[in-house]
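Blinded run. Sample ID left blank on purpose so nobody reads anything into the name before looking at the predicted structure. Input follows.
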Amino acid sequence: MSAPHFAGFIRARPWLHRLVQPVANWYGNAAAYRQLGLRADDLISEEDETVLKALKRLDEKTSYDRVYRMRRATQLSLQQKILPKAEWTKPEEDTPYLEPLIAEIIAEQKERAALDNLEIIKSH
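Blinded prediction complete.
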């Protein structure tokens, strides 16, 4: 589904965070999804069942905003254009909105699997 995350490891070490932050900013700008008005979670593939469940759990406004961003980015891509710089997604606006729901669903699936495989031992 998604790549392993080292964010917690990096944020726990301020010296490493200062070292990696410029590279992360450069990569975020080089990926060009922000120039189309997208957020990082908009790039997560919808083919996974877990992602589909997470999308169903989004509130109405967030879901509408996601669809709007995707349609606008598709239109811009077809026209081979990018948004004006004032409309680009800023790094501070690029916060995860779907990944927390995906993590929650995965935790629920693990809990369900553990409970389904629960063995009851009767003591006499």
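Unblinding after everyone has recorded impressions. The chain has five helices and no strands.
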